[in-house]
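for ur thesis appendix - DUF2642 domain-containing protein. copy paste whatever u need, i formatted it the way the template wanted (i think)
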Amino acid sequence: MVRVWYALKNLFLLFWFPRCWKKARAKRELLRGLIGKQIEISTPFGFLAGELVVVGKDYIELLDEMGADVFVRIAKIETIRSLS
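the 3d part is after this line
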């Protein structure tokens, strides 16, 4: 029964909110083209810059100038700018 509810919920989201799904997909595709490059992103929490290492299904991994791994959810990314 839980699987049926989950499937119905996803179908509802797909048909009633298609722009939301396409927007996340468009961001993900744009980010995949920037893997290995220096980028700057803005989020509601501030700006982050570094080398884009990984683009997952719903997150990215940046390597900042201090060498630390930074994980950011794609849904929280507001702007993307290539620095290289």
